[in-house]
Amino acid sequence: MNSTRRGYGRGRDDNDLVNGEVEETDVVVIGAGVSGLVTAVRLREAGQRVVVLEARDRVGGRLLTETVGGVRLEIGGQWVSPDQTAVLALIDELGLPTFARYRAGESVYIGRDGVRRTFAGEAFPVPATTAAEVDRLTAELDALAAAMDPLAPWDHPDADALDRISFAAWLEARTDDLEARDNVGLYIGPAMLTKPAHAFSALTAVLMAASAGAFSHLVDADFILDRRVVGGLQKVPLRLADRLPGAIRLNSPVTEVAWDEDGATTKADKVYKSRQVVVAVPPTLVDRIRFAPALPPVHRQMRQHQSFGMVIKLHVTYDRPFWREQGLSGTAFSPYRVVHEAYDNCNEDDPRGILVGFVSDTRADRLLTLTPEARQAEVLDALAGYYGAEAQHPIAYYESPWAADEWTGGAFGTSFDIGGLTRYNSLLREDVGPLAFISSDIAGLGFLHVDGAVRMGESTAARLLGRAR
Ligand code: FDA
Is residue 90 in a domain? Predict the structure, then answer.
């Protein structure tokens, strides 16, 4: 996977960069998200000298646990599920306790007819014909996912056909039942890739399912949104950072990397010389770094075909979890409401009631054109539709601002446009000279999840150590 390409730029010229202090190290890691930190910790454990350069004033990237208005919130990623064995093992290794998401009681569903219904279990209370279609589509997607190696989705027997059509078109070809399509589309579109189902391929949809073990796992909220870390999931990167004393440089955005086959010179707060560089940033941010020589044209093109999804994560706090008094779990879904899913997100150490909800893709676009007051009013109306009028009276309200964040630019992660997976295939994880590119966005198992970031970090460290021997 280590490709050597020359002739695209001027070649490495340290004089371009060196105008101050130079630090030598074995490996420079760009980005102190989970993928970068895991790489750095494993390399350091093996005796390598490592420097981690982080643009922000904190570690964790898309993991951020912060107290806002007196309430501790999971502003970024928060849930882990039983199939995510890499992140679970890391949580264990770091000695972090977890707790289960609150799930006692009935869930709420609002269907195409606009009627609010409560239900127990996973199956939405839809007409029997729709339920049968959802089951049939679920079985078909499970079978497609079972035939896929998530590390190489382009090798799936139906890869070319599936990557040519949008997931929406694939669903339309399979059933005339609109509500079945809207529900199956929701699990992968708004709920996972945070893009409309016409904006990504059916192959990407199958990858999303295969990366979580099965499509049925995505349907089962009790599985995919199973547990949380006590005190917040950002404890994972914070504990990893504790294992890297002196190695992490915050407020150090990397602007330039000059490289050749022997190593690289990286410019951030100062200049670093290293044998290897691990670029642990989302694909959409790679192009903000100037590489000399430039990355091969196809690599740059490939990243232009990957884009962030868009979701507003809402945190709404009440004096108590009033929905529990109505026998509700807090879990609510509707493909037809602006908040398409919401959950009880109470903290383990706080008696107040916290709901978390999501507004995805085109609905998020529209909401962001409104004033903050109008947006909040619309969100609270939607929550009142699920939980009753009491939802209109929170004591605190907050929207996670990832799309506006310079060092992320969307949520939850990035995915290819139609045809991208088969067009670029194994280039996705190909090195360029001494440069490796990693993030959860290009993981196989755990794609778009912290689990994928951990897996990328572990495998990249092992690969670099193999090369160093
Ligand atoms: P990440 O983006 O975290 O890290 C990249 C780092 O690089 C950042 O710290 C950034 O500042 C830095 N950087 C970028 N450019 C740089 C430069 N030029 N120089 C230096 N540093 C640079 N997952 C999950 O498992 N369960 C969940 O419940 C959720 N929920 C969720 C909600 C929301 C709102 C979001 C945004 C995301 C999730 N996720 C999630 C996804 C999960 O958070 C995500 O997949 C991983 O945290 C990504 O980790 P990475 O290390 O790959 O990238």
Answer: no
